[in-house]
Amino acid sequence: MKIVSIATAATALDRRQFMQGLMLTGALGFSAGTAQAQSTIDVDRLLQGAEVPDLEMGSKDAKVTMIEFASLSCPACAAFHEEALPTLKEKYIDTGKMRLLMRDHPLNDPAFAASLLSRCAGDNDKAVKLQGVLFSRQNYWLGGRDVLDRLYEIGKQAGFNRERFEQCIGDEPMYAKLVKQRNRSTDEYGIRGTPSFFINGQRFTGDFTDPEAFAKMIDPLLKEAS
To answer: How does pLDDT run across 116-127, given as a tens digit for each residue?
Structure first.
C-alpha cells in the first residue's frame, strides 16, 4: 500500500478523510499483541523499548524510575496528569527521589497527530510542557471534527507556524517509529491500555488518580535503596 503524505493530507478540505487515513494500519502494520500483562519486567529491558526517546522529568540519579505509557487522547491519562502528577512531582520528582519517563503509546489517529506535534517542540523540557498543555486542553482539541485545526491553534501558542506544523504532522519516519514503539510495548510488555505504569520494573495496578496509591509502591522502594 502506498503511504500517503500526512502533510499533504493535512491540507485537504476534508479533514475527516485525513483522520481516517492517518493511522495507515495496512501499510505500517499495527500489532494486536499476544503478550500477557507481566507484573515485573527488568528495568533495562523496559528502557530498551523506546524507539523515540522518552520524555524525562527528574534526576537520572534518582533511586526510583517510573515509566508511563500514555496516549495524548486518553482521558484517563489526562486525569493522571491533572490529579496525581502534581503531587508526585512535588514530593518525589523535584526532590530527586524519582525520575519519570513519559513514553508515547498512541491509541488512535488524534493521539498520533498530537504525539507528532509534541515531538517537534524542541528540547525535552519544551516537549514535556507541550504534552502537559495537550493533556490539560484535551477536551478542546478533541471537541469536534476539526482536530487538526485545534491542534494547530495549540501549536501556534508554542511557536509553530502553519508550515512547521504541517511538516511535523507529516513526519513519516517519526510516525513509523511511534508505530514500532507501540507495537513493541504491546507485544513485549503486554501494554493493553493507557495509562500504564512500571515503577522500578514493577507494574502499578492502583488508582492512577491517587498519589497515595503511588506512594505505597514508591516509599518502600526508596527505603530499600537507602
So the answer is: 999 999 999 999
**Does CATH number 3.30.70.1520 belong to domain 33-225?**
no
Taking CA atoms, 203 is separated from 40, 65, 157, in Å, by: 6, 12, 36
Q: Which residue has the cell 493511522?
A: 23
Q: How far is CA 78 from CA 51, 81, 177, 192, 209, in A?
A: 23, 5, 23, 17, 10
Domain range summary for the chain, segments of one domain joined by +: 33-225
Tens digit of pLDDT for each residue in 96-139?
Answer: 999 999 999 999 999 999 999 999 999 999 999 999 999 999 99
CB atoms within 10 A of CB 85: 22
What is this structure's pTM?
0.85
Peptide bond into 195 cis (omega under 30): yes
Return the SS3 of 54.
coil
Three-state DSSP state, 196: strand
> What are the Cα distances from residue 172, in Å, to 5, 28, 112, 161?
8, 11, 11, 19
Report d(CA 214, CA 208) in Å as an integer. 7
